[in-house]
Amino acid sequence: MVCPSYPPQDTTCGVGDYTRCLVEELAGQGEQVTVVTSTGYRGDSGGSVQVLPLISKWSAVEGWKLIRSQRRRPADVIHMQFTPDLYGRRSGFVLMPLLSRLLPHRTPVVVTFHTLIGGGLWSRVVAPWLLLTADRSVSANEEVSHLIHRHLPALESRVTEIGIGSNIRVSAAGRDAVRRSERARLGLPDRAPLLAHFGLVYPGKGLETVLRALPAILREYPQARLVVVGDTRPEDRSYRDSLNRLAREQDIAHAVLWTGRAPSEAVSSLLAAADLFVVPYDTGGTARRGSLMAGLAHGLPVVTTASPVPSSPLRDGANVALVPPGNADALAKRVCALLASDGEQARLRTGALALAEQFSWPAIARQTRALYAQVLQA
Q: How far, in whole angstroms, is CA 199 from its chain's centroid?
């Protein structure tokens, strides 16, 4: 398994968290897994998954070294995680699937696409290149599948969609007990509405919309609080500062709790304490959002924005509550309506858990193993 951001590292990465969850489940199902990652890895190399923090610069040379190493200790499959910026700008490592074809007894390469394209011409060239040179590709969500269908239909037959799950495992402790203890730790009365927003703090997550909606929510529910659970990368600190200024300008700073980076167990406890999960993404909620999947997995009523992709599994009123992106008034009204309706909350909780089951890690690992078997039989 190849993933530069495999955790723990100094910065948080959703693809790294996804990879950790996947390889741990693959190992639990009997597969022998080795992860090749960056020298920035801060964990140990023991346990059920061997971790090799070998690479500081993800170049074509390092890709060739990885391919040549298969002559000494061959793997059955090399599985590469991909986003346009995961390996660094203009990284030559993306040549690795092609280089693998130069050896007579080669190891097949599978590439998982978490996003297809980013900014700039480079990413628009790399994605088709990898789709063409990999033995098999995985679309990690319906958004990637839609883009391939629309823009690269000739390569669609080379792609299998296998979704992502929550990168936060649900606490094994009883939800009610965790809810009570966590609310006591936060100093919240048991009946005070708690809204949760989880994920890396950066533009596009809709946090400005949440903060602008909060004054109207507080007029209806003065004890309501918003907890923002997530790390901020160095390049996004100024953005985080702008959110603090917005909270002060709206006179709601007292109602916003910022946790910063938190271990997964603490995140799970905070989500267990919440009443609603509010993630009104600027470009729409889709199943590529690991943070959204965490809310579903914890059985929370999720308030998010409509997906631009027709095949989205998110259904308004069935497993999520949808609002228009960037519309603070609509968000406040939907949140207040949900807080006033135990019945609708219960319906969304049931729908969230049913949808999350389709994206459980055991199911994802089984689908991944089946794909490996197909590749090896080809």
A: 8
| pLDDT-derived band at 347, boundaries 50, 70, 90 | very high
3-state secondary structure of 138: strand
pTM score, two decimals? Answer: 0.87
Compute the distance between CA of residue 210 and CA of residue 208 in angstroms, rounded to an integer: 5
The pLDDT tens digits for 311-324 are: 679 999 999 999 99
CATH 3.40.50.2000 in the chain: give the residue spans. Answer: 14-165+361-377, 175-358
Does the domain formed by 14-165+361-377 have CATH 3.40.50.2000?
Answer: yes
Q: Taken in order 8, 86, 202, 182, is the CA torsion positive or negative?
A: negative
* pLDDT higher than threshold 90 for residue 309: no
- In terms of CATH architecture, what is 175-358? 3-Layer(aba) Sandwich (3.40)
Closest CA to 185 of 309, 87, 281, 273: 273
Measured on CA atoms in the order 213, 218, 221, 226, is the torsion positive or negative?
positive
Name the strand (E) or helix (H) holding 196.
strand 194-198
pLDDT band at 119 (very low <50, low <70, confident <90, very high): low
Reference 182, options 214, 227, 220, 224; nearest CA is 227
Task: Residue 308: name the closest of 290, 293, 322 by CA.
Answer: 322
pLDDT of residue 103: 83
- Contact between 307 and 328 (Cβ < 8 Å): no
Check pLDDT > 90 for residue 91: no
Gap between the terminal Cα atoms of the chain = 20
78 — pLDDT class (breaks 50, 70, 90): very high
Q: How many of the other CB atoms lie within 10 Å of CB of 42? A: 9
Helices (H), the chain: 14-28, 60-69, 96-100, 121-133, 142-151, 175-186, 207-220, 237-249, 264-273, 290-297, 328-339, 342-358, 361-377
Task: Give the residue carrying structure tokens 């949760």.
Answer: 196
